[in-house]
Each structure stands twice: as C-alpha cells, then as structure tokens.
Specification:
Elements (H helix, E strand, L loop, with lengths): L4 H20 L9 H40 L15 H57 L6 H33 L7 E4 H18 L3 E5 L6 E4 L1 H17 L6 E9 L2 E8 L21 H7 L5 H11 L5 E5 L3 E9 L5
Parallel strand pairs: 2-4
Antiparallel strand pairs: 1-3, 4-5, 5-7, 6-7
Helix pairs in contact: 1-2, 2-3, 3-4, 4-8, 5-6, 6-8
GO cellular component, one term: plasma membrane
InterPro entries: BphY/WalK/GraS-like (IPR050351), HATPase_C_sf (IPR036890), HATPase_dom (IPR003594), His_kinase_dom (IPR005467), HisK_dim/P_dom (IPR003661), HisK_dim/P_sf (IPR036097), Sig_transdc_His_kin-like_C (IPR004358)
Keywords: Kinase, Membrane, Phosphoprotein, Transferase, Transmembrane, Transmembrane helix, Two-component regulatory system
C-alpha cells in the first residue's frame, strides 16, 4: 500500500499548519513568536489526531480487507475469520460481505472435496462388489469350457454356482439402480392406506423358513390386528424385508426377531429388534452408508449386496421420517422409525 496513515497525516497536518500560519498574517500586532509557535502546535496536534483517526477508521480496515483478498487469491479460506472492527460502517460492511463470500466458497470447496472422496470410495466399492460375482461365474464357465462340461455331476454343480453368482450380481445391480433413482429423486412414492400388520405378517411368512433354519422366532407385538398407515406399500415392504432379513442374518441361533408397533397420537412407532451380535458404537453412524459392512468377512459369508440399509434409509426419509438404530455388542440391535397413521375422512 503506497500511501499510509503516517504519510497522509504528515501532508494534511503540514497543510493545516501552513494555512493557519498564513491566516495569522492577517491579524495585526501579533508577537513574532506567535507566527512560529502556533503553526508548530497545530502541526503536532494535527499530525497525531489525523494519524490516529486515519489509522483507526480507515487504513486498519483496508489492510484487513487486503489480507482477506490475499487469502482468497491463495485459496487459504479455512483460516479466514471475521475480525471485530471499529472502522467506517461502509468498510465494515465490505469486510463482512467478503467474509460471507469466502465462507460460502469454503463450504462449497469442502463439499466438493467430500463428494470427490465419496465418489472415489463409491467407485472402489462398486468395482469390488461387482468383481466378486463376475470373476466367480467367469471361473465356473471357463472351467466347464475347458472340458469339465463332459462330467455331468461337475457340470450341474458348476452351473448352479455360476447361476447363484449371477443372481447375486443381478440383485446388486437392481439395488444400485434403486439407490441411484432414490438419490436422484426419480422415484415417486405412492402413498395409500396400508395395513402395517398385514405387511409384517406377509414378510414373516416369506422369511419363516430362513428363520426356522436358525431356530429364530418371528414375533409381532401389537395391540391391534389392523393398523392403517399412510405409506407406499411396495417400498415399505422393502424396508421390512431388509430390516427383518438383517435381523435373522446377524442373530444367534434360537433367538427372536421382534417387530413392535406402538401408536402415538397421529404416528405409529415401529421397532425391529433382534438379540444378535450387535453393532460396535464406532460403526453406528455409518451402518446406513452404501456398501458399509461392520464385519466384512462375516457379511460376505452371510451374503447380501451391502445396500439394504441404505435403501431403508432413503425410503424412510421419503416418508418424512428418520431411521434410528440402538445397539449393544452381544445383546442385539433395534432399528426404529415412525409412519403417519391414516386418518379416514
């Protein structure tokens, strides 16, 4: 900054002293010492006052603004903070506008970095999840083509394994499409009166055989046989399928999976509880992320696409609710959310 407060104060104080000294010449019969004493006093006091005023009200604020521009130019926005100022209101407003602009840009930069990180992680996860069934099916098919097809027992065994991996690949692609459509807002929920008790009973019937293999009991706790909620029937089926399947999958043998329905004014509180392995506290805030697995080795052995809870989260949020999880290691997990009760006109 070429011009500072001291230089400008020196020029202005000297100008004032000269003008006052010249004005004294118009007054007759003044002692000689007055013509040099008063200009000196005016120069000294004027310099001090003008320097303080310019520095405090203008130049200090201008330096802060200049520093903000330098940080913006160097993309150093993380450490940019508003400073308490006492300068001219216009300069204060300019400084606040600059800070607000920098704050918004910093937020956008952080969001872009987070999205880029998330995108890289997502691509890595998708590649890994797709690679496993593709390579497995490819291995079985090539083994058959290399001559194993002539052995009937091996042929049927390998064809079944290849089909199982391709079925898993199809399920993964379908779940990926579902999540992508939901995040893009391409799926519209068709809200209609839905008997949630009937939905749970249907899913119990569907998963009964799987639960029986582990000796797990499926229980519905409700004070009514018919509770109508306003929901998308198909999507709510997906929610319960994923939650109850996970509860069976990660429960110990001879346990219970309990679905509890409690009416609260205009809402229905829904909880799906198991007494399985539980989720460690450090994983609770990430279980709804795509492809996130608490125990990767056990999750792979149990099957699944790794997208179930992510789909549940999107569907529940589309119903203007929130999915919550409470879990203790070795004691089980509880997933809960609310749905709006249907009020007949």
């Amino acid at each position: 900054m070429l011009l500072n407060s001291k230089g400008l104060a020196l020029v202005l104080a000297a100008s004032v002293a000269i003008i006052i000294g010249a004005s004294l010449l118009l007054i007759p019969d003044l002692p000689a010492y007055v013509f040099w004493l008063i200009p000196i006093i005016c120069f000294g006091t004027g310099y001090i006052l003008i320097n303080v005023v310019l520095e405090f009200l203008f130049f200090k604020e201008l330096r802060n603004i200049y520093e903000m521009f330098e940080r913006i130019r160097n993309n150093d926005l993380a450490t940019l903070k508003p400073k308490r100022t006492y300068g001219h209101s216009s300069l204060n407003q300019i400084q606040q506008e600059i800070y607000s602009y920098a704050h918004v840009k910093q937020s956008e930069i952080e969001e872009l970095k987070q999205m880029a990180k998330f995108r890289r992680q997502f691509l890595a996860d998708v590649s890994h999840e797709l690679k496993t069934p593709i390579f497995a099916a490819q291995g079985f098919v090539h083994t058959l083509l290399d001559g194993a097809i002539d052995d009937k027992s091996i042929r049927m065994k390998f064809l079944k394994k290849a089909a199982k991996n391709l079925d898993g690949l199809d399920a993964l692609v379908q779940d990926l499409l579902t999540v992508s459509h939901m995040e893009a807002g391409d799926i519209t929920m068709q809200f209609e009166p839905t008997n949630i008790c009937e939905v749970v009973d249907e899913i119990f019937d569907q998963l009964e055989e799987r639960a029986a293999k582990k000796g797990i009991g499926l229980k519905l706790v409700s004070d009514k046989d018919k509770i109508l909620v306003l929901a998308d029937n198909q999507r709510i089926h997906q929610v319960f399928i994923n939650l109850i399947s996970n509860a069976i999958k990660y429960s110990d043998e001879n346990g219970d999976v309990i679905v509890t329905l409690i009416q609260k004014k205009d809402k229905l509180d829904i909880t799906v509880k198991d007494n399985g392995i539980g989720i460690p506290p450090e994983h609770l805030n990430r279980v709804f992320e795509r492809f996130y697995r608490v125990d990767k080795s056990r999750s792979k052995a149990q099957g699944g696409t790794g997208l179930g809870l992510s789909i549940v989260k999107h569907i529940v949020e589309a119903h203007l609710s929130e999915i919550k999880v409470v879990s203790n290691v070795g004691e089980g997990s509880s997933f809960s959310f609310e749905l709006e009760l249907y009020q007949a006109e």
